[in-house]
Specification:
It contains 19 helices and six strands. The model is unreliable at 13-20 (pLDDT under 50). With 482 residues, it is mainly alpha-helical. The structure holds arginine. Arginine is lined by residues 46, 50, 106, 132-133, 136, 340, 342, 344-345. Residues 46, 50, 106, 132-133, 136, 340, 342, 344-345 line the site of arginine.
Length: 482
Amino acid sequence: MSEADEPNVGLSSQSTDQNKNEDDEKLWGGRFQEPTDAFVERFTASVSFDQRLAQVDIDGSLAHVRMLAKVGVLTDAEKTIIEQGLEEIRTDIVANRFAWRIDREDVHMNIEARLIELVGDTGKKLHTGRSRNDQVATDIRLFVRRRIDDINSRLTALQLGLVQLAEQHAATIMPGYTHLQAAQPITFGHHLMAWVSMLQRDQERLIDLRKRVNRLPLGAAALAGTSYPLDRQFVAEQLGFESVIDNSLDAVSDRDFAIEFASFAALFMMHCSRMCEELILWMSAPFRFIDLPDRFCTGSSIMPQKKNPDVPELIRGKTGRVYGNLISLLTLMKSQPLAYNKDNQEDKEPLFDSLNTVRDVLFALTEMLPNIQVNQTNMLTQAKAGFSTATDLADYLVKKGLPFRDAHDRVGRIVSLAIQKNCELTDISLMDMQAICSIIAQDVFAVITVEGSVAARNIIGGTAPNQVRHQTQLHRKRLQKL
Ligand code: ARG
């Protein structure tokens, strides 16, 4: 996203009252006998945060005005005048010299009022057959769609980075955990590919919800449609919408598409928080499995030795606000009667916050993850500890004919012996093992090494290096097609 797409949000210095003309009427001022209360003006204004919709608002207006000319509501000359005015406004906004005014309430009326200032009476025709209700719904959808496409490509890049790391570490052995207790040895590549699978589902959700975002509300007008012969299909094509929303009341009022994005964002952040939690654990002294590059960490102002994983911690922390945004939006929509209500103006800040947070988190992870330093020695040492191949020994006995429960019992006794001797399973002599279970033979030692353990799990979805390489190939193909 180039910064030019989104001007610095905030009111410019020229947007104060000094700028206000005595005869500066509200666009809707006709039926009012007294000016708006100053507090109400501030309380109801959204321009401080919805001005980031300016570019899509202009895109929507251009499509609308071209359609009005096409169906004969405007002349071609009028269309051209309005187009030129809107493009001039776009240039001013990009150059950060547009005077946003709080007395003009929102992005839509700021742009429309400025258009009228620039081109005169012709500008007053722009809003023919349109309401801010269908206008804002269109703007948000265009804005979210553009951001979805950006997020989608960042998600692909992140997964490709992880796939590459997983290929490098297809045979790197680490401890696998359940209950955060060493369970069985796994490969680091396998662990990383679990993250890719989570992100794959996030991406599927994103691609799916885009379909429902990409429908056109414009033409619904205030709520009931309009008596002008608008060509909604033409507007949809101009703006790249897949279809036209077929109920005008629904078109202006629902924000379920925004809630779907917020829900995708919440799930995505849940996954990121899990990954980050592991990075933080792995970087801590008892683990020392990985190190993060210095440029992603910060120090302590008092403890000179500290190197803190601030970036993963913040990602974990930001999950909270993204969950909050989902709840805000759900609650905002709850019990709203049809059709548009001003409540809906409150959709923007939580939505924008989730859009920005997801984008930043993807940026951080894509830069950080491929650059972690992996300490294979520490991973291997930990993988060997805690009798992590006990299940392999039991499976070995089963393959020699013992029922699983008996095998479980014999291995339990061998583990107990190892605890007594303060050694690993591989350190117990064949004779000592045979004293507990006579069918054990010399070939047991190949089975109870960590290398033997992971190699044996050569089943679809298993942790064997072969399987991991197979998975990375499949995912790479999938990602290259996106
Ligand atoms: N700023 C408003 C919003 O974000 C635009 C729509 C206003 N419509 C109205 N009927 N007051 O929802």
